[in-house]
Design goal:
This protein is of the alpha/beta class and 581 residues long. The chain is built from twelve helices and 29 strands. It has a seven-stranded mixed β-sheet with strand order 14-27-28-29-25-26-15, with helices on one face. A seven-stranded mixed β-sheet has the order 23-20-21-22-16-19-24, with no helix packed on it. Strands 6-7-8-9 form a four-stranded antiparallel β-sheet. The longest helix is centred in the first third of the chain and has 16 residues. The protein starts with 8 loop residues before the first helix and ends in an 11-residue tail after the last strand. The structure holds adenosine-5'-triphosphate (ATP) and magnesium ion (MG).
Length: 581
């Protein structure tokens, strides 16, 4: 069960360290006192950040904020093949959009940006590797990748030591320097930690620390042809930055002994000093009806199953933003699910509920007819028009009113009329009275049909003394109330009706892969009849279209006077999609 963030286990650990003074009296090389809590968010820039990363951002930046510490944004960019500047920019945008900052004031009142790249540490990481070689804690192995894998052993059997394991430090140093100097091809040698080939934890069976990779790096270019492995670079980067609490997800639990081993050995050599950073793990976020794997999200993009990384159906932060979610709603979601120590699934409805709850108080109301049917008020004078008013927000009268026009012909929702009303249907049918929201009570007189029997227009008479907001307007009661938009005044605008991207709750679970689990109805583009005032909507302005849901003017596709709307979420989750996990 998720714990409340105000009592989560990470806070308990930090409280314990604060009480013990574990990180209390550290200073940086300039002699400035370091905070007792320094966390970091360490993405690999190999894809756009997603909702799972939002949770990690919230945890790391949130903890630092709560304890008056600081959180570093660090790109763990040690794999040249998959990394790109575009992803760095997307991650920076995402952290900013969520309202967090990697900047902190310094003692002299200036502001310092704690924005780092592991690739900036390549020289130092290399020096640390030499330090390990010198104390015989690392060696150059000249076996092939296949041989190394084959001699790792198994859960039941110890691994087999490499014939190169006992090379002298001098020999290892010479080889490692030659690796760096580009004397060898990819795969000819690797640098391995010299730990224990019989360790029950496979991670400790002489893991690879450096590999040769003649590849261009998006930041260091051709400067390097050897690159540190993630496990080696990550803990060293934490130590270089004086991180106190290195918060990772549960899949890193097995690697924690390696994290401690590397830093412990470097401390023994005098390269690092106590107190060292410590790693703690919490549960990854798994969200139903979507995917939180960058590799799979990339596949959706490259196979054009979605319209790019920021498609409003994508669980990327760029997609969620474009869909119309507010940063506050994403943070509210993180708070509601809390921090757990065991993996589990969170239902998509929790995220949808968070944005509804956030937008209910913030979004102005508007009328929009999405599936239009013409309504003719036969007793309303032709060519005549009048204005109606409605509060922008029913609970916030201080926001004022919206003004829109009523005329003889109105658009109403097709489903708000039937000539064969089922029991309990209170909307329009011949002989019934309903209220036009913010307008008059009308009485339905009949409908016109085409040759195939489809209703093409509805007829009604309005009751003149019943206009909303006038004295005695309620003298005639109507049980139903429907929304409408005046035909000559309507703004005919593009609306994209988005729905969940996947039908299945766990799209990756099926044998046929995630593509068969895609929801074919996840995007429907319509031209809707919108209240005229919506023409002025600014990009990223959000509304509740009454009786439908929340919508946002798309931040990229809207132009002045011509916004395009995305459906963020329906007022209630109408549909069910697949069994729950
Ligand atoms: P992916 O598996 O999608 O490639 P990753 O874990 O490799 O994700 P990183 O860029 O390394 O992606 O992630 C940066 C940070 O975000 C890490 O600390 C990672 O643990 C955390 N993180 C990634 N996915 C999730 C998730 N679903 N829930 C919580 N935290 C996550
Ligand atoms: Mg990772």
């Amino acid at each position: 069960m998720a714990e409340r963030p105000d009592s989560n286990f990470l806070r308990a650990i930090i409280d314990r360290d604060l009480a013990a003074g574990t990180y209390a009296s550290r200073t940086d090389p300039q002699g400035e006192r370091l905070p007792a809590v320094i966390t970091r968010f360490p993405p690999e820039p190999n894809g756009y950040p997603h909702i799972g990363h939002a949770k990690s951002i919230w945890v790391n930046f949130g903890l630092a904020q709560r304890y008056g510490g600081r959180c570093h944004l660090r790109f763990d960019d040690t794999n040249p093949v998959k990394e790109d500047r575009e992803y760095v920019d997307a991650i920076i945008d995402a952290v900013r959009w969520l309202g967090f900052s990697w900047e902190s004031p310094t003692r002299d009142g200036a502001t310092r940006a704690y924005l780092y790249y592991a690739s900036d540490y390549f020289d130092r990481i290399y020096a640390f590797a030499e330090a390990l070689i010198e104390c015989r804690a690392a060696y150059v192995d000249s076996q092939s990748a296949e041989q190394i894998a084959a001699t790792r052993g198994s859960f039941l059997e110890a691994g087999i030591a490499s014939p190169y394991r006992d090379r002298t430090s001098e020999e290892n140093l010479a080889l490692f320097r030659a690796m760096r100097a580009g004397k060898y091809c990819d795969g000819e040698h690797v640098l391995r930690a010299r730990i224990d080939m019989g360790a029950p934890n496979m991670v400790l069976r002489d893991p690879v620390l450096y590999r040769i990779r003649h590849a261009w790096h998006y930041r260091t270019g051709d400067a390097w042809c050897i690159y540190p492995m993630y496990d080696f670079a990550h803990c060293i980067s934490d130590a270089i930055e004086s991180i106190t609490h290195s918060v990772a997800t549960l899949e890193f639990e097995n690697s924690r002994p390696l994290y401690d081993w590397i830093l412990g050995r470097l401390r023994d050599t005098g390269a690092l000093r106590d107190p060292l950073p410590h790693q703690y793990e919490f549960a990854r976020l798994n969200l139903t009806h979507t995917i939180t794997s960058k590799r799979k999200l990339l596949q959706l993009v490259t196979e054009k199953r979605v319209d790019g990384w920021d498609d409003p159906r994508m669980p990327t932060i760029a997609g969620i933003r474009r869909r119309g979610y507010t940063p506050e709603s994403v943070l509210l979601f993180c708070e509601r699910i809390g921090v757990a120590k065991t993996d589990g699934w969170i239902d998509m409805s929790v995220l949808e509920g968070a944005v509804r709850d956030d937008l209910d108080g913030r979004a102005d109301r508007a009328s929009a007819v999405l599936d239009p049917l013409r309504l003719i008020l036969d007793n309303y004078p032709e060519g005549h028009g009048e204005t109606c008013t409605a509060p922008r927000h029913p609970k916030h009268p201080e926001r004022g009113v919206r003004v829109f026009s009523l005329s003889r012909e109105l658009w109403i929702e097709r489903e708000d009329f039937t000539d064969d009303p089922p029991k309990g249907y209170f909307r329009l049918f011949p002989g019934n009275k309903v209220r036009l929201r913010h307008g008059y009570v009308i009485e339905c007189t009949g409908a016109e049909k085409d040759a195939s029997g489809n209703v093409i227009a509805v007829h009604a008479n309005y009751l003149p003394d019943t206009k909303s907001g006038t004295p005695g307007a309620d003298s005639i009661k109507a049980r139903g109330s429907i929304h409408w938009v005046s035909v000559p005044h309507a703004f005919m605008g593009e609306v994209r009706l988005y729905d969940r991207l996947f039908i299945e709750s766990n799209p990756a679970a099926g044998e046929q892969g995630m593509m068969v689990a895609l929801n074919p109805g996840s995007k429907r583009v319509i031209t809707a009849c919108l209240e005229a005032g919506l023409r002025e909507a600014a990009p990223e302005e959000r509304f509740q279209f009454e009786r439908h849901g929340y919508f946002v003017a798309d931040r990229f596709d809207s132009s002045p006077g011509k916004p395009v709307f995305n459906r963020i979420v329906e007022l209630r989750t109408g549909r069910t999609a697949g069994p729950s996990v």
